[in-house]
Amino acid sequence: DAGITQSPRHKVTETGTPVTLRCHQTENHRYMYWYRQDPGHGLRLIHYSYGVKDTDKGEVSDGYSVSRSKTEDFLLTLESATSSQTSVYFCAAWGGANGQAFFGQGTRLTVV
Amino acid sequence: GQQLNQSPQSMFIQEGEDVSMNCTSSSIFNTWLWYKQEPGEGPVLLIALYKAGELTSNGRLTAQFGITRKDSFLNISASIPSDVGIYFCAGPQTSYDKVIFGPGTSLSVIP
To answer: How does the average pLDDT of chain B come out, rounded?
Structure first.
């Protein structure tokens, strides 16, 4: 898993509340990613980061924001959670050219 | 943007059979990655391919980087029950900024 830890692993929250998911890596990888996984959709990229304070949108970024103030931490925030954001969220880190993307174990988020 | 397609979508095979699945794109990829995901876990990297035509093995798994750079193939020989899971292909879009995934091939192995 290349030292990638996600927290929390499970969370239940109410509609309209803010939620922050944390991804921590120990390998000093430059690139980090947040994906969501839903039945029938595979893994869809939400946001990614190519360095400290450098982030960009993926294919399903609406309703999400990210921040990366340190190389090792990449935070995903749902400003006002909605039921459509109920999903399993995966963080990944990539070592760059000829490298590989390694994943955390996922965070199961339920918005009620 | 670039998209990855995988086929078949799902497979049900008998233990001991060989398995073939593929991944295609309308655009060129410079790296192909194959992952396996088991229930409740994150995807785990199986094989990485970096050159067109490259053929790489990992135990009973063999993957190939297509010559056109628009496809890749994964074969599993003599399948066993623990091969069950979802197999994803993935690759970085043009640069290493965005790594996108195919929709997956779900494999079921009947003992």
So the answer is: 92
